[in-house]
Amino acid sequence: MVIVSVCAFGVVLAILAHLVLLPLAKRRPILLRGAESYALGALVIVAVAFLSAWTLPALLLLVAQLVVALVWRPWVAIGLETEQVLAAVVKASTMVRAKRAPVDERTFVMGERSRLRVRQLVPRVQLVTIRVSASNATGLKKIALFRNVLRKTVQNYSLGRS
Questions:
Q1: Strand order in the sheet with 114-122
Q2: Closest Cα partner for 130 from 108, 103, 162, 154?
Q3: Bigger pLDDT: 104 vs 72
Q4: Strands 125-131 and 114-122, how do they pair?
């Protein structure tokens, strides 16, 4: 039983290294969207659960994480500061000519009523949530284009030496 647990823990660490360490070693930020961000969070929780004696708190964390993933659908940007993500939002909205009205320093109203919020989870790990609510098809298409351009803009950053 111990051998299986150690092997499973090794597999979880190998997957985490593949998802996180290899892109960061190539000096590229990581942008996890949708199921990718949920899977990475679940793998981190499972890796911690392997090290603890109690599995119930880990199961509760997995359920809480699933609720957050389904309700807010956050993007996770790893390796970038908040200012870099906000600059990418400004660049992407300018490229697609989407209206952008700042609510505060980390929240924007995009288009008619869609809301984008950037939260710092820990240093160099940002959560980006986009709540889409457009009244017409053109607004939905523009927000979808904005999301795609934002994804490419964030992934195009090169991480400097620090």
A1: 30-32, 75-78, 125-131, 114-122, 107-110, 100-104
A2: 108
A3: 104
A4: antiparallel
